[in-house]
Task: structure prediction
Amino acid sequence: MGKRIGILTGGGDCPGLNAVIRAAVKVGVERHGFEVFGIEDAFSGLIDLDYRSPNGNRWLTPRDVRDVLGRGGTLLGTSNRNDPFHFVTKDAEGRPVERDVSDLVVEHARAMRLDGLISIGGDGSMAISQRLLEKGLPIVGVPKTIDNDLGATDQTFGFDTAVGIATEALDRLRDTAESHDRVMLLEVMGRDAGFIALHAGMAGGADAILIPEIPYAIEPLVRMVQARAEAGQKYSLIVVSEGAKPLGGDVSALGRKPGEMVRLKGAAARVEAALEGRLDAEVRVTVLGHLQRGGVPSSFDRILASRFGRAAAELCAQDAWGRMVALRDGAIVSIPIADAVARPRRVDPKGDLLEAARALGTVFGDEPA
Ligand code: F6P
Result:
């Protein structure tokens, strides 16, 4: 008898998730004789075995993963609101309270007779997976996130697609900015890491890029816009990472609700307000938001996700529990999930990419007068 392997996607969705599921199911079933059990909406399907939204937990065969390689989203559903260690329920008065239901997750996985679980997720999901592993649940991890903020892997799938979408947005904004002589601010995702902003900004030829790793002042932006106008280029493009911070300030965010992470909002609007009245040109803001997460994955992301899915199935076959697949120097390797959790990736302000952007005249908001 082959193993029984559960598979779930956790955290925010990201282009390429379906490609991982497809590869893990095909390799698991066809090569290793696994029975693969799809768990719905991240850990929801393990917290409540009768959970239904909209399909519920279900067996997955190669037939179920036909034609999903190029589709965005995740056929298993996902959530970044159901951490079993901080699960939100209501108290007697109907107020939201956080509870630890992690024992229930382990118990339910045993009740389903799962030999192991493939957990596909970002830093949050890997931290949850590590804690469940320590409670005795055998887990193999697959890293995903458009933010590319996991230090353990050279790249996560989803990032390439998100950068492509943000680059296309800049190309489009350039046309209209030039027509109207406007300063266009494009806010992109990335949380505490500025990779999407830096890569899209470089690919789209942005005049300034504001990232969380380099606190910004407004004067360098004003000087850049004015210098361009004096040189005859009366428009400018500025990419603002959602986690960008002004010098001495903090991120722009909404308060944290129980069971949720802090929601970043308003980074570009804050730059717009600071530029207000200091420029001749009009300033406009575009927030790209979740457009960066949907749609077809790029071919790079499809390939990386497929390699990760295949490698995850192989790790399950080898009983290599507690390990996460990763990309290192072009090869797929595996590392302890614990290491992945401990090593966030951030843009190196002195790195080659940033220096190349500076050499090309891109402003980061830290330039001296
Ligand atoms: O981590 C991925 C990400 O898209 C971040 O870039 C962003 O801050 C966050 O998720 C948005 O999450 P939500 O879907 O809850 O708005």
User: Anything to note?
Assistant: The domain at 160-293+348-359 is CATH 3.40.50.460 (Rossmann fold). The chain has eleven helices and 13 strands. The chain has a mean pLDDT of 96. Residues 302 and 323 are 22 Å apart (CA to CA).
